[in-house]
Specification:
By secondary structure, the chain is an all-alpha fold. The chain has 17 helices and two strands. Helix content is about 65%, strand content about 0%. A two-stranded antiparallel sheet has the order 1-2. This is Protein NRT1/ PTR family 1.2.
Length: about 550
Amino acid sequence: MPNMILYLMRGYNMKAVDGSNVLFIWSAVTHALAIFGAFLSDAYLGRFRVIALGSFSSLTGMILLWFTAVIPGMKPQPCEQFKDDCNPATPAQLAVLFSSFGLISIGAGCIRPCSMAFGADQLDKENPDSERILDSFFNWYYASSAMSTVISLTIIVYIQDHLGWNFGFGVPAILMFFSALMFLFGSSLYVKEKPSSSLFTGFVQVPFVAFKNRHLNPPCDSDEYYHHSHDKKLTPTNQLRWLNRACMIRDPGRDLSSDGSDPNSWSICSVEQVESLKTLLRLIPIWSTGIMILVSMGQTSFTTLQANTMDRYLTPNFKIPAASFAVSTVVVLTIWIPIYDIVLVPILARYTGCPRGLSMKFRMGIGLVLSCVAMAVGAITESVRRRIANEQGLDEQPAATLNMSAMWLLPQFILFGFAEAFSAIGQIEFYYSQFSKSMSSIAVALFTVGIAGSNLVGSLLVNVVNSVTSKGGKESWLSSNLNKGHLDYYYWLITILCLINIIYFLVCCWSYGPFEDEKPGISDEGEANIEYRALPSS
């Protein structure tokens, strides 16, 4: 993703704003389809078929993207964007490009939510060491995911920069081919769990049934009229009380089977379903506070363009690819998580009394503050970069290299790594603490939807800023010529929005009430740590 902005600008003659919009929307669609992939797997096809479908879709998309690089007619004629009057891509050329993006998104949407769970299905659950083996599997899964991210942002990006897009897209296509082939070769050996029902379907059923029963009045002093699936002690709460109609037993002979189970979830829901939906709705305000930090971290297209204009030589003979600077965020995240978990948590727990060292609320707040500081640092760095460009007379030479090291971009990436480590982990742990263990997959789903939402917000922000600042023939803040635009003003705008978001977060925390320090039923640190290691691959 960070390097793709250069392909869109150089290969398809897109402006920086248009290319960023394409990438924001592509990322949003990819993360949104992960929810669809999980639903398709749980309710209809099963994990094996969905992963196979995703592998084929990803491979087809990668091959199609590779075609755009190797077949000349797939792209506009090459030209110097800042010197010549370049022809834009034709609708047919964009259709091929966007089709490749769409196929890759479908593939990711099918594979991401299913691969880890499918791997866990293969483990022997009757083994007395199953929990330890499962923990080990998750550790290796996330370690390999983090490593793949590092490889893609270093080796693959280096190939794209030095050997061209033909090789840069060809290598991942070949890797995807062998990945799909290896997966299918093991088909006869896999344990394939049958699809049952989707948690997301249950969330739709509750308001549907409640609306059907809108003429009923929920009883206030007894829960004997409510349908329970498992936990008989769970009673409907008075929050969002109108949803309680969904689990009311109107006619036991019609609504329930002889053994007391639920014959039709579209006629009556369980108390557990209703309370889970209430919990989800109650989480939405706090969930929404995490969108802005993801928006600030999603500006990789612009940071790649900044790095592209700066001195990137590490040694006289080695030049760091512009998109590789983003890997520092992943590295910081990967290093900090075990340090915090193994070294700092025991020390902090003695003083705070919190089993996880710092409370979830405090960690989420720290993450929001650090992201705000990171954007401010980014704005200052860009202001200095632009001033140096002006002093060197490079206003009309956006492709020229400034006498300023690209290493000055590292502080903001490092701060973003710490921000994600605190905020994202705190968010997911908080989500896990609110749902029962059977509903814990909703925690990851909420985070995934947040990423999709942040990309849509990022696209909207780019469009609004570009439209407003370019009125009257003025140079847009987000001009493709960074030396004439004002990317620093754009970063300051995001910094202000981050400050407002911190205030909004404090209001949401006050409204929500005290957070739980630890999820009931999950006191074992090893199981909690599984989720912490999920974030590097995110």
